[in-house]
Specification:
4 strands, alpha/beta, two-stranded parallel ribbon, single chain, disordered C terminus, about 45% helix, about 15% strand, elongated, GroEL
């Protein structure tokens, strides 16, 4: 439980740094567009704009699946950071898929 204003500030800074690290890792891996099947939070949008990326929201999980199939991307249930070295230098966008 948060009892003071300072504890709230510290919590916010911790959350902010976690989100920034996730978005920064995606940008460093070569991702320029994030396709989501759900909402993209304000904090995420802030860092997506900061790193000059774009977020697209698709309402239909079938549209997300079509884009994944067409682009050869991997649809995942949530955003997961990854390193480009894990994929032998191949960069592709991971998609969010709501099942």
């Amino acid at each position: 439980m948060i009892k003071t204003a300072q504890e709230l500030k510290d919590f916010s800074k911790g959350e902010e740094s976690l989100v920034e690290n996730e978005i920064k890792a995606l940008k460093e891996a070569g991702v320029d567009v994030i396709v989501a099947g759900g909402k993209v939070g304000e904090l995420c949008l802030h860092f997506i704009n900061k790193y000059e990326m774009m977020a697209v929201r698709l309402n239909s999980k079938f549209d997300v699946r079509r884009i994944a199939k067409t682009t050869g991307a991997t649809a995942l249930p949530r955003l997961v950071s990854f390193c480009s070295s894990n994929y032998s230098g191949q960069y592709y966008c991971r998609l969010e898929l709501t099942v």
